[in-house]
Write a structure and sequence with these properties.
Layout: H1 3-20, H2 24-38, H3 44-49, H4 61-73, H5 77-85, H6 90-94, H7 100-111, H8 116-124, H9 136-154, E1 156-157, H10 158-173, E2 178-183, H11 185-188, E3 193-194, E4 197-203, H12 206-214, E5 219-225, E6 229-234, E7 239-244, H13 250-258, H14 261-273, E8 276-279, E9 282-286, E10 291-295, H15 299-305, H16 321-325, E11 344-348, H17 359-368, E12 373-379, H18 391-406, E13 412-420, H19 431-434, E14 439-443, H20 452-464, E15 470-471, H21 489-498, E16 502-506, H22 516-523, E17 529-532, H23 544-553, H24 567-574
Parallel strand pairs: 4-7, 11-12, 12-13, 13-14, 14-15, 15-16, 16-17
Antiparallel strand pairs: 1-3, 2-4, 5-6, 6-7, 8-9, 9-10
This protein binds zinc ion (2 copies).
Amino acid sequence: MKNKEIADLLKRMGTLLEIKGENAFKIRAYYKAADNIAGLSEDVAVVSEEGRLGEIPGIGKTIAEKIGEWLATGQLKAYGKLTAEVPETLLEIVDIPTVGPKKAHLFFDKLKITTIDQLRAAATDGRLAQLPGVQQKTIDNILHGIGVVAKGMERINRGTADQIASEIVADLRQLSCVRKIDVAGSFRRGRETVGDLDLLAEATDPAEVMRVFTGLPTVAAVQAHGDTKSSVRTRQNVQVDLRVVDGESYGAALLYFTGSKYFNIKLRQIAKKGGMKVNEYGIFKELKNSERKLAGQTEKECFAVLGLPFVPPELREEMGAAELFDEDQPRRVPDLIEQRHIKGEFHVHSTYSDGKNTIAEMADKAKELGYHYLAVSDHSQALRVAHGVVEADLKRKRREIDALNTKEKSFGILMGSEVEIDTNGKLDYNDRILSEFDVVIAAIHSGFQQTSQQLTKRLVNACRNKHVNIIAHPLGVHFGKREPYDVDFDEVCRAAADNNVFLEINSFPIRLDLDSSHVYAARRHGVKFVINTDAHRAEHMDYMKFGISIARRGWLGKADVLNTRTWKQVAAALKK
Ligand SMILES: [Zn+2]
Ligand SMILES: [Zn+2]
């Protein structure tokens, strides 16, 4: 289906027209068309073929013709013409936090700025400061934003990494000579972001594996092509290394290439104390003039000869290492939460706010995942950009949920809400309305620039409200756009623990908020957690696995997470 590509193209047209300074109606037409095509459940190519493009809301004759042209030729003349005037590199400038299309227009119009480098130069040499309405604070924010974007470009988000890795692994697994294949590295450790991908395989014909790997359709450039090791760069500009190793060394190699560096150093120290040596080929006993191999085939046996329990990849970090390696205590690895423990979730959106699927469609997906319950928590009224739900529509939503529930035996839909915490810490619905929800999630979506004190107060106030059960994406992280808020995290944790409020691990791959280090810290405050996906489409509910990785990295077990419980247990646990 080409829907996403066309929606992206139309959105880019809209943004470029906005930077150019075109009239607002024309710009909005493109954004609206992009939105409606992204939300279309059928293939836009089929709709076009059958001459029904005009039936999609927001698609007039001009845009319908453009879609037809792109589908027929793979090109769009108007886009070529537009980017000759307004270069595509301006889209990167729009994406810098705090910039957006209006400022990009100003910088382009007055200073002919078209690239991030030019913007950085103009911000530092004083030219930006001379523009109307641009203050020092604006410039500081822009420079900070450029830094955040640069950092985001060095690493990829977990969703993209997962997609690239699973496609390559699936392709290579089809080869009959491949006996085993794993993704190692920081990806296997469940890191929030990934630098490059390290793949490890065992195969009877390594040359064949290398030949197929370097020729995969996703490969844009081959950087090295060896007998047992190759490196490529994918079309998304991600480096992927693949090594083929012998079966007797597979476990040792997997252990070695999973890392982390810190963890490997720790293992070497432990080995040394026992007169052993550990490397990517195995674990060896050092004898006078030779050495004897003790283990290497599986990770499990490697850990065993070192006298260690199996350490799950997510725990192989410096964080928490003291708990693993403290010699005064028995080395005990906790039972970490697993995907199969999840019985439902509380934070998904429907067409009542900015979700693309109906409540019934979201519920169907939840049932497919084997869940017992799903809370549909749309945005509250103040969040206009996300079509927050007004009071009258809440009644309609409740009736729809009740009607759907009468048809269910072992599954329940819950009425939730993701309620705005305003810039003063007040909630967007009054207590009477809040009392009618099954689950109340409080969240911040505005006023990110406030002081640490103000942001902390907003979150603490929300925890103290007697109806609030969950704080969503507590630190406002947005990969490549926003780093965690500067809040007094200890104070937020205390407020959450004292008021029986659950802190969310948001599994959406560009968020992953709380991240693992904050989960680890919050656990020590006695905070309880909930893992949600914040799905805006049914398929986003598959993101749960990313949140699980974060929870595992933060040392959480089943009992630490609300949505491992049955609904009856949840209802009791939510009581304030
Ligand atoms: Zn939100
Ligand atoms: Zn949300």
